[in-house]
Each structure stands twice: as C-alpha cells, then as structure tokens.
Amino acid sequence: MTPAFEKLQKHLKQLPGLGYRSSERIALHLLVEKPAKLRQLVEALEEAAANVHRCVRCGNLAEGELCAICADEKRDASIVCVVEHVPDLVALERSGAYRGVYHVLHGKLSPIQGVSPDDLNLRSLLQRVERGEVKELILALSNDVEGEATCHYLTQQFGASGPKVTRIGFGLPSGAGVLYADSVTLKSALEGRREYR
Ligand SMILES: [Zn+2]
C-alpha cells in the first residue's frame, strides 16, 4: 500500500473501538470505493473541529456558548448531575429519566495516573455551587477507587451551607460506570440515589 494509505490507517487505528483489520477496511472503503463520501467526511470533520467545543457552564459538547441542555429553560438547573465523561451524559439522556442539568468532569481523580483536581473540569463546578445555583448535586461517578476519591474530594469542598449531595446507586459490579448501564438500570439508579453526606 501507499505511504498515504498507511498514514490514514495508522490514525484510524488510534480511534476507540478500531483495531488493525477494521481500520484497514475503513481506509480501503474510503479510498477505493467512495471518493464522494470521503470528501463529505473530511468536510464534516473540519466543521466539527472548528465549531464544537466545551460548554462554558457544564463541559458538555456545544456549538454556541452553552450546550443544548444548559440552554434549555425547561430543564431544572438547580439539580446538577456530575459525570466523568460526555458519553456518560449521553447514556443518562438516553434513559429519559433525568430533567436536571449536568457537569462533566472529563475524568476522575487518580493519584496513580497523575490526575489532580487541576486536570479536571472542577473549578467551574465549584463556581456554580458558590453562585448558589445548585440545590442538589447528584454524583454519577464510577463505582471504583478513583470514583470514590473524586466524590470524597468534591464533598470536602463545600461547607455546611453547601448543596445536598447524593450519589446514584448502581446495582452494578465494582468498577462499572454509567456508560455501561442500560436505560432501565440508570432510571432506577437515579430514583434510588442516596444522601452522600
Ligand atoms: Zn452545558
């Protein structure tokens, strides 16, 4: 194959969920079979790269200043569900069980992997709480050591006058998170959330 093909395949292979065979198949499909669609894909990638960024309030994907959820006045902005990553938010939205808003940390605290509070989207969450916008904070972080450490750190940041803090119950094996739960499990996990502090 050509150097350009090898380069394309190498980059495809680095995407989540794609191995050597699937990246090879996609590269061949794009370059050999569908030249018109290849141009459309390049344009979609360029448009997304130029226009999609983090919502200034919650960290979700947005094209304007605020994401569609933060901008939706029908959502209850006083209830904030804290998740690790955008796909967790997507899973909760798909469950249809939640009408509050979110805050995406883009990770969880991990001293072993060198992830400190400054590496996460934490400051803006503390600012939301300080502004008195938040009545309840629902922690929907993974059920492992790092998730637990992140929950503990967060609650330590609030004084006695801080918001009510709850954590969703999973009924899932240790280490599993929101992303891998089905809609029914997520709905009951939200309804069965317990006071965390
Ligand atoms: Zn937002």
State the total count of DSSP E strands. 7
Uncertain spans: none
Gyration radius, rounded? 20 Å
Sheet with the most strands? 5 strands, mixed
> What value does the average pLDDT take?
89
Distance between the termini: 59 Å
> Structural class of the helices, strands and pairings?
alpha/beta
Q: What do these coordinates show?
A:
The protein has about 200 residues and is of the alpha/beta class. It contains seven helices and seven strands. The protein has helices spanning about 5-15, 20-35, 35-50, 85-95, 125-130, 145-155, 185-190; strands at about 55, 60, 75-85, 100-105, 135-140, 165, 195. The strands form two sheets. The chain has a five-stranded mixed beta sheet. The longest helix is centred in the first third of the chain and has 17 residues, at about 35-50. The protein is elongated, with a radius of gyration of 20 Å. The mean pLDDT is about 90. The structure holds zinc ion. Zinc ion binds near residues 57 and 67. Zinc ion (ZN) binds near residues 55, 57, 60 and 67.
Structure at a glance:
The chain is of the alpha/beta class and 197 residues long. Helix content is 41%, strand content 14%. The protein has helices at 3-13, 20-33, 35-51, 86-95, 123-130, 145-156, 183-191, and strands at 53-54, 61-62, 76-83, 100-104, 136-139, 164-167, 194-195.
